[in-house]
Design goal:
11 strands; single chain; seven-stranded mixed β-sheet; DJ-1/PfpI; alpha/beta; Rossmann fold; DJ-1/PfpI family protein
């Protein structure tokens, strides 16, 4: 098991109508891990611009810590999902493609890990990041993900898929499982188990 000693910069992408649990659950896993094992993760949110962003159903507004031009260089970018109709709009939004998704692609090409939650993997359609990788997404969008990404191998009936530089998950709560898995991968089973204990969480196993 790899034991990382360097503090990892973890950037959580936020955008209009982002799914709350997709974002907050993995974020809390890494924050708890950092509390248990200090200086393991530096977590922050990143938006296209540093203005309030409304989460799903306009239930709350959040202000990103940074925008894509001012954030620290991320070692990992977490891409939460949104309802499918919003994902479709973003895939047709040229400005979003040329700014936010290009920001992700540029960092991915320089070695940054990309970790998508739920329909977040769909957002990467067209970037080339998913090509020649095993990937997954929410069960309701598996066929759509396959249609948009014919060069990717869409995996069904798993909670998450680890392709080293690319991690994708199934729907919503699968983001917790994958984040816990990543903590274990980075810092060992003991730290992961402590986070699970604090969460009082019964996590599920995955094939990857």
């Amino acid at each position: 098991m790899k034991q990382d000693t360097k503090t990892m910069n973890v950037a959580f992408l936020i955008y209009d109508q982002v799914e709350a649990l997709d974002l907050n659950a993995p974020l809390d896993v890494f924050v708890k891990a950092d509390a248990i094992h200090p200086n393991s993760y530096h977590c922050f949110t990143v938006g296209k611009i540093k203005e309030p962003i409304y989460m799903e159903a306009n239930t709350m507004a959040v202000i990103p810590t940074y925008d894509i031009h001012t954030c620290p260089k991320p070692d990992m970018i977490v891409v939460p999902g949104a309802n499918p109709e919003h994902i479709t709009k973003y895939l047709e939004d040229k400005d979003f493609q040329e700014t936010v998704l290009q920001w992700i692609k540029t960092h991915y090409d320089s070695g940054t890990v990309v970790f998508t939650i739920c329909t977040g993997s769909m957002l990467l359609s067209g970037t080339g990041i998913l090509e020649n990788h095993d990937v997954t997404t929410h069960r309701m969008l598996l066929d759509t993900l396959e249609q948009y990404n014919p060069e990717a191998n869409v995996i069904r009936n798993v909670r998450y898929v680890d392709q080293e530089q690319l991690i994708t998950t199934a729907g919503i709560t699968a983001g917790i499982d994958a984040a816990l898995y990543m903590v274990g991968k980075h810092h060992g089973q003991e730290i992961m188990d402590k986070v699970i204990h604090i969460f009082e969480y019964q996590n599920k196993k995955s094939e990857s």
